[in-house]
């Protein structure tokens, strides 16, 4: 082959030949030990886990979701039976769920009796809105009282309403209705039947249960046990009540977590089987035997498992998206085995086994180091991303490339001695004359090819620069999610939708937090009146601060209650009512009131569900949330800025998905530019150090750069955008595009012209490209939209890189060579 084997390579290979079995046995043992790391591998299934830390938009939103989101909630939708049967099932099912050790609370209905005795009874005037006191004073006048007594008479005349008498006797002034309306308005999450207190649709054909378990939804084993127990209880209640036709659906973070975990397992299993089948097929078609498999599988398995073991030292848990670093390594590192095997077969034609292995290592060693370091450097750069998943993906993939260098100089030669002694494939089948002819034709027409490539690049760049970013978190969810379908059905049937943002105050004392929350709620009410907000939900109605309660009770105590009782008594007698049934109300209405309702008061138990979604105690402080929904076209950032301006020095945060997504979009744009710049500059320096030629380095980089530009232009045409996952496709294409060129340049050693290099190295180039494209192509079948898009984009970009390496690289390298010769020739003539 003409390649000179240096003594250092000969000495190294001789040492490996003597100990090749020991090396392979030791690596197998290391592989088995590393495999045990998989038992300790923890996956972060939370989409928010891939987002940045240290930025208010992200930290505030993640804190908000952790404290008040549905991370600790299982939602049950019950339908498919008459309303009485639905309520019967809901009562029995809720009681069974509350008995589970894994459940803290089940909210199935408002306890109307407790509510009437408490907030609408003993503490009615703690909850009577200040804005209603002017109307209340008018109601206590003779005319107002007489009008109310007439209303009471009409209520009693209503047919078949057996509760009417109790209502009129306990509240002849109709004050409960005022407070009840305010409480009902505060309950914005689900409609509540005014007759029985269940969370029901207006027609009563569906009910909701809200379950709060003891642990986080992202403890997958806990979620799995929880749902198993819940479904078991469901089946037993169905059987006991004979309601087999009832339909029960589940949503919430516990269902999402199990769906994500199941999808990951399914994707990994499907990807592994399909990728293996495609690789076997490509290898067989390319080499007409499968003897190459140990060269590409064993080192790859060892490297990947070592990388997984390393991940335990670097990260507490791996994001569900960043775990695809294994798929990237599988697609990239497989090239080393293919090139090694192909070169070894070629060298074996003229040498004995020891010298053939040494010549193979000498011929490809520098190329492998250069290719691994340039690709690893690209991923190392993205390891400094502020996106958690991208950071993990970058560092772990870069470590894999470093491990690959070690494997190339140890495991591959050892495998060569173990597996290559008995038989070698026919050499004639290894050359690819058509690829060589195509490369040679491109080299002969170098100026025309170069100009055409430049024109195409400029045209594509116009569209490529307009590629957008996709920062929508919902697009990172799996397709065909049953939990998402149930959530959408709930929103459609119950006419409610979760608020998209919240204003949060954190104080060391609950009263201070409630007071500041009330200030914020009042300011937001002004925004709502101005048309900036379409909805607002605050805790002030359900749990007013002690200061507000004291003010309300003071206003109540100043009312002319004794006079009002005399007027009411006379009016009742005038309209035919007996005096005795109203004696308790008369005595209760006249007494002074001072007792304050605090958060631990038993009277608030019916409202515990609502309080949980507005008030939380965390690490020695209280957090109060006021939920808001801006009107269409109003940016949440505008609301936040104005709120900060209006409230001056008050400390609070605004957390919302739109704020997060806006910040994520800016980060994606910034990191895309930084990654491209750092990858290009870093690879240029590494190639320059390795090849010693700036022209050759620029020619090599031009191939993957054109592929990336073409990919961006295609994305723009198809309406695709850069997201936190497919962002990894860019360094992947840059890394492999450089690898293709580096190995081809290594194949030119001792040969004349690029045609010969591509004729002898074309098979390895095509096989490595097709196996990688196939691997990432099957990743495109993932149910995660972003992961699937990354697979398709990577596959398309790498296939384009292979084509450009054959038709463009020879032309660019020829232009560089001619330029260097023209620069050298005058100097020679002068000599």
Give a structural overview:
By secondary structure, this protein is an alpha+beta fold. The chain has a domain at 1-40 and 291-429: Multidrug efflux transporter AcrB transmembrane fold. The protein contains 30 helices and 13 strands. The strands form four sheets. Strands 8, 9, 10, 11 and 12 form a five-stranded antiparallel beta sheet that branches. A four-stranded antiparallel beta sheet has the order 3-4-2-5, sandwiched between helices. A hairpin with a 2-residue loop joins β10 and β11. α4 (83-98) crosses α10 and α12 (293-314) runs antiparallel to α13 (325-348). The longest helix is centred in the first third of the chain and has 35 residues, at 253-287. The protein is elongated. It starts with 6 loop residues before the first helix and ends with a helix.
Can you identify the CATH superfamily of the domain at 1-40 and 291-429?
Answer: Multidrug efflux transporter AcrB transmembrane domain
Average the pLDDT over all residues and give the rounded result. Answer: 83
Under the CATH scheme, which class of the domain at 1-40 and 291-429?
Mainly Alpha
How much strand content do the residues show? 5-15%
CATH architecture of the domain at 1-40 and 291-429: Up-down Bundle
What integer value in Å does the Rg equal? 36 Å
Q: Would you tell me the structural class of the helices and strands? A: alpha+beta
Secondary structure tally: strands:
13
The CATH topology of the domain at 1-40 and 291-429 is what? Multidrug efflux transporter AcrB transmembrane fold
For the largest beta-sheet, the strand count, sense and barrel status come to: 5 strands, antiparallel
| Poorly predicted parts | 189-195, 423-428
- What is the CA–CA distance across the termini? 34 Å
| Count of discrete alpha- or pi-helical segments spanning 4 or more residues | 30
